[in-house]
Amino acid sequence: MVQLNKNTIILYQKIAKKQEKIRGKIKMKKIRILSLLLILVMVFSLSVGCTQNTASDEPGSEEQLVIAYAQAELVNAWRVTNQTDMEIQAENFGVKLISADANQDPSKQLSDIENLLAQQPDAIIVAPLESEALVPAVDMCNDAGVPLFIIDRTINAEPGEGMYISEITQSHKFSGEILAEYAVELLIEKYGEPKGNVVHVQGMAGASPVIDANEGWDEVMANYPNIKEVAVADAGFTKQGGMQVMEDFLQRFPAGEIDIVRSDYSDMTMGALDAIKNAGRDELLGYVVGEGGHIKAIEAVINGEIACETQTPPYFGETAIESIIDYLNGNDVPAKQQVDVKVFKIDDKDYAQQYYDEIVEAGLEF
Question: Does residue 97 sit in the same domain as residue 134?
Fold first, then answer.
């Protein structure tokens, strides 16, 4: 679904015709509403003997759609890019975006959602911090009568019911499967059989991408009992967190006791790589697998430091806002929508280099 030239921060030419068509639909819908309101005002004015039609001061004017966005956090480049994309797409589609940053606090995100709903938006987009903690958002939207669209991460509720209209995600389970399968290949190449020790630089245990990626990883590894996860620790999706967790792993496990380093996000992966290099543990370079697809991680694949990097792109703005507009215009919107995952491997550096060159030229990070 996602192509680089379609979902960049800079170049959005391909959606111009689509926007024009959608705006035309919105305009016609609002003109019909305004016409009805004008008739009601005229009838009321006549009934009370008024001689002035106050609704005709600005004939043909139309209200701007208001979309709220409850962002989970802005602690890394993925999230910042995601927020920027959402803002630019809102401008491109001609809607007003009001947003709030939960700063990695589920209770604050629920409070953000409550405050955003109080502003009576036409719809709300939520990038949930955690799957279970954000479930109350569904009832909040049902009570407010505001359509809810979940992006990136899932919540433990079924989309397509009540005001929970659509879930727009990426398959982190598939990403976990890819990383696990490649780790198996690396270990077979190293030992002649599938065996070895894995340390996991984890993002956040309760986050749905981590839960889903772990599910995919575990399903693959269930077939290889001699590949063992010997340590796992949360690093909060940040570079500093990744460095600190990896430093701890390196102290606990001397050379020869770690075979694979797994990471849930590029910033953490780059922090882990710094820790590996600082400690002189070069035996681990080329045995790192991670998720995220940041430009620095793709470059590390090209340089032979990361063996496999999956990319779950941060560009949800176009799909989310277009889905909202379709819904508000009475069109059917799929309850579940998927954004494709890209894969960069150390044994296919040409593809990684081509993609790297494209995003450098476009001035992007993903």
Answer: yes
Asked whether the predicted pLDDT for residue 82 surpasses 60, the reply is: yes
Tell whether 23 and 75 lie within a shared domain: no
**Rounded-to-integer distance, Cα 82 and Cα 311, Å:** 14
Q: What are residue 262's phi and psi, to 5 degrees?
A: -110, 135
Same domain, 243 and 187: yes
Angle (CA) 54 57 60, round 5°? 120
Same structural domain for residues 307 and 274?
Answer: yes
Q: How confident is the model at residue 363 (pLDDT cuts 50, 70, 90)?
A: confident
Q: Which residues pair with 68 in a beta bridge?
A: 98, 124
Q: Is this prediction's pTM over 0.70? A: yes
DSSP string, 271-284: HHHHHHHHTT-GGG
**149 CB-contact burial (10 Å; exposed 0-12 / middle 13-18 / buried 19+):** buried
Residues 180 and 282 in one domain: yes
198 and 298 share a domain? yes
DSSP string, 149-183: EEEES--SS-TTBTTEEEEEEE-HHHHHHHHHHHH
Span 87-109, pLDDT tens digits = 999 999 999 999 999 999 999 99
Q: Which of 82, 172, 64, 161 is nearest to 125 (CA)?
A: 82
**Amino acid at position 230, single letter:** V
Backbone angles phi, psi at 289, to 5 degrees: -125, 140
In a domain, 118, yes or no: yes
Assess whether 179 and 294 both reside in one domain: yes
Helix H or strand E segment including 125: strand 123-126
Give the 3-state secondary structure of residue 234: strand
Largest CA distance in the chain: 94
51 and 154 belong to one structural domain = no
The CA distance from 172 to 175, in Å, is 5
Give the residue from 237, 300, 312, 308 showing the smallest Cα distance to 273.
Answer: 300
CATH of the domain at 192: 3.40.50.2300
Q: How far is CA 101 from CA 68, 83, 107, 108, 129, in A?
A: 11, 10, 12, 9, 10
Q: Which domain holds residue 31?
A: 14-63
The residue from 44, 63, 82 where one domain ends is 63
